[in-house]
Specification:
The protein is an alpha/beta fold and about 260 residues long. Helix content is about 30%, strand content about 10%.
Length: about 260
Amino acid sequence: MNDTTSQQPKRILVVSAHPEPRSLNAALTGFAVEHLRTAGHEVRVSDLYAMKWKATVDADDFPEHAEAGRLHVMADSERATLGDGLSPDIAAEQEKVRWSDAVVLQFPMWWFSAPAILKGWIDRVFTSGFAYGPAVPPPYGEGHLGQRRALVSVTVGARESAFSDRGIHGSLADVLHPIQHGLFWFTGMTPLEPFAVYSSNDLPDDRFATARQEYARRLDTLFTAEPVPFRPLAGGDYDHDMRLLPGVETPGTSGLGLHVRTRA
């Protein structure tokens, strides 16, 4: 019995971002949904292209915003969030996140980032008053969306070696840092090591079968795998100015790796 089926059923939100329903990303989304449901979990899907998701933040997101007033995105989004004044599409996605025990983001890496439509989902859904602020708990480890696991499943056109420690693209951990650390960890979610399919532009059947097997293993351990050990802001490693204290870093680390503790 795998780790997933040995637990109580969980609720998982899968957010998919690819315009082609016959794409590798769509196939991985479908596989994940079927695999998780077969294991007894409840799954909801936000297929952003199929939903024709609006990717840009503007005053229409906050219907009660006074047209004559200057738009302050953080303040207006917080006011609308706390006053149940967000546009219906945003409110519906926030409800899905609240409902979930885990969030899976499925997307192709485009220009070293997520597609614009997924970035727009993040920009519009993770508002002040919902995902962070205006009061405690503090961000980075104890945020509003705690008690949820978070997994990135990403397809990458480049070969894996190009994202290695000396690869020309930089490490995958660094490239995904804005999502893993800046979105998940900042809001209190628990980030897992990302699942990546490399050289994905031309994936033969045997490699797709192998990828599905590995993805199945990652989905089976969605709630048991060791998370990325990011340092919590309130854990004593940072000063009042949110700077890492001297001498607490793991020897030999630098750059973004400074914010990851040594695994036990």
